[in-house]
Amino acid sequence: MHRRTLLLLALALSMMVALTACQDDKQPSSTPADVTEQFFAAFAASDYKAMEAYCTEWCITSYFHDDDVNGFVWAKLVTAGEAEPADDHSTSIFVTVEAETAPSSSLHLSTEGKTSFYVHLIQNEDGQWLIDRFTTG
């Protein structure tokens, strides 16, 4: 009886291991909305290093500078629209932010210190969504 219980327990354990191994290891680790929210949470604190984790290399090279990112010293997310997929691996989210522009920036904010633009994200080979660029329309 004791042996039978151990055998059934071992069988159940091996089935659990086998089923776990069958799961797809390339599941997306985030959604475009999550990435956008986390990026702007770091941006609100001007934590440029933390922001890089949510961006493609091209984005970092193109938009990140010593004292600003895309002309902003900091930007706090006010609203984010629904993701607007372009295809299976790219999407855009329209955001409104409250921000401070860098002295060298040509960006103009509303009288309330707000502006709106699109955040474009792509899904990499590992299934992670990353910010690739920003556009105004």
Structural write-up:
It is built from four helices and five strands. The N and C termini lie far apart (about 70 Å). Strands 1, 2, 3, 4 and 5 form a five-stranded antiparallel β-sheet that branches. The protein is of the alpha+beta class. About 15% of the residues have low confidence. A hairpin with a 5-residue loop joins strand 4 and strand 5.
Concise account of the structure shown:
The chain is built from 4 helices and 5 strands, in the order ααααβββββ. It has helices at residues 2-21, 32-44, 48-52, 57-63; strands at 72-80, 84-87, 90-101, 114-123, 129-135. A hairpin with a 5-residue loop joins strand 4 (114-123) and strand 5 (129-135).
Radius of gyration: 22 Å
Mean pLDDT: 84
Give a quick account of the main beta sheet: strands, pairing sense, barrel closure: 5 strands, antiparallel
Question: For the terminal residues, how far apart are their CA atoms?
Answer: 72 Å
Count of helical segments?
Answer: 4
Compressed to H and E, one letter per element, the order equals HHHHEEEEE
Give me the secondary-structure topology.
Elements: H1 2-21, H2 32-44, H3 48-52, H4 57-63, E1 72-80, E2 84-87, E3 90-101, E4 114-123, E5 129-135
Antiparallel strand pairs: 1-3, 2-3, 3-4, 4-5
